[in-house]
Amino acid sequence: MTPPDGQWAPERASAAYDRGVTPAATAQTASPEAPEIAPQRAADQDGADRNPADTPGSASKLGGVADVVRRRLLPFEARLDPYSWLATAVIVAIAGILRLVNLNKPKGLIFDEVYYPTDAWDLLQHGVEWDEKSNGPAYVVHPPLGKWMIALGEQVLGYNEWGWRISGAVIGTLSVLILVRVARRMFHSTVLGCAAGLLMALDGFHLVLSRIALLDIFLMFFILAAFGALVMDRDHRRNRWLQALENGLDPNVPGRAGRLPVGVPWWRLFAAVLLGCALAVKWSALWFVPVFGLLIVLWEVGARRSAGVRRPWRDTFIGEIGWLVLCGVLVVVTYLASWTGWFVTDDGYFRHWLADTGHSEPPFIGALRNLWHYHVEAFRFHEGLDDKHQYQSWPWQWLLLGRPIAFYWSTDGTCGASSCASHILLLGTPLLWWSFIPALGALAWFGIARRDWRAAAILLSVAAGLLPWFYFATQGRTMFAFYALPAEPFLILAVVYVLGAIMTPARSAVTSDEAVASGPPGDTAVDRRLIGAVIAGAYVLLVAVCFAYFYPIYVGQVIPYEDWSARMWLGGRWI
Q1: Average pLDDT of the segment spanning 61-81
Q2: DSSP 144-199
Q3: Which of 210, 246, 258, 416 is an S-S bond match for 63, by CB 3.0 to 4.6 Å?
Q4: Is the pTM of this model over 0.85?
Q5: Is the confidence at residue 45, as pLDDT, over 50?
Q6: CA pseudo-torsion sign 416, 422, 423, 429
Q7: Contact call for residues 79 and 85 (beta carbons, < 8 A)
Q8: Strands 420-426 and 405-410
Q9: How many CB atoms lie within 10 A of CB 257?
């Protein structure tokens, strides 16, 4: 529009994140400790979403709700765009083809497949892991759910390479689907959502672990799915606040009359079940439980502040403590349910430890005490795991690809050269992984500058996936690079966030005024977006080229020895 003085008026910059839909998701203050202010002023103080129409004097109302409040609470509707689903299907198809083609090669059990596929087969036969040598229960130190998922493939396809690897390949492909939709919802952009999924699909680290029967792909899947469910819960809850305000709710009225009507947070409860499943694969999922709980609290406080609640922290405690407790119960119940085979048989390791040691073993309680003893012994095993291993590594090496793992190596086969090599190396696509650390630095900067909830969520999730291992490193525990897999989706989200920021025009009022002073509205924004899109597109293309170059050593293709040697960029560290 043109103001009376004839100068161009700044328009709201439509970020790549929201495509001009609504800044509700981007306007939430990431620091709930900030002073409580009216919703309109809160939006003005968030530089990432400020525009002149948001000032208190110019805010219009629809259904009795100020526009700025509506934008802050209105969720992104991600289900109704058929083109986004078509693009998602293409990305998922690429991921599925890469993970399923020649899945039965190499033949036989490789690396830790000597453990988990056999344990999975024993679960089908006995309900618990079994030691064939002693013809008795086997002592294992990981919960059973991941092995039950491997067993599902063996039940359908038999005890062979296809049988024990198919579940991981399917779950790996589904994790790409989830990441596309989660990223699209968070960034309000089909392009950025598909970029996230494509980067995961073309990551060698994720690809290798999707094609080998280990547990970590299932762990990562459940953690990512739980995070996605919480993002859905966040949008659903903010939408309920908006509907309540439109229906006349006054959040400043004391008592129940000023609170959100009671409603079951199904997505949150589903997230709790998924977290229980993650714990039932590996205990390292435990670190995500308090982090995701913190995100729930921060998002609920932010929603209440946006709605105009005077005491959002107190109201959040009153309104959400019961649901948080229920979520904790669901996590525990889901975890215990994964041990059903151990509970319903008499053959599990330590199943009757109390009776075997001369103690009373009452029904149910006795079984729980026996399971607790099993867990204590397993924890002691993990705590004392300090044996040296050729491929062990430290957490500070993981993002630098300092010590990848050789899952398979052979010099057999023909390749048209005098010497051949076939190698499966657990190595992230180098260009992608070497961008993670600078992306995290940029994400922290943007998170502070824009006070963006997405940056905080991504950084906290990365911390949950990586930081605990730094502590265990000080204890000298033996660790491997694949422990970083649960953090990988969030590291990719960090990269995509930065790519989106590169394509996004500055959105503060001051910058907008400067941008429009030299020409018609939108010229600078369009140029910025075009240049940013070229940079982001070039980056994704280079990652794809890098992935293609290393693809032979991700899937064990037989190639000339010289070609294999050329791919060992860090020499002995990668051999």
Answers
A1: 74
A2: SHHHHHHHHHHHHH-SSHHHHHHHHHHHHHHHHHHHHHHHHHHHT-HHHHHHHHHH
A3: 246
A4: yes
A5: no
A6: positive
A7: no
A8: antiparallel
A9: 9
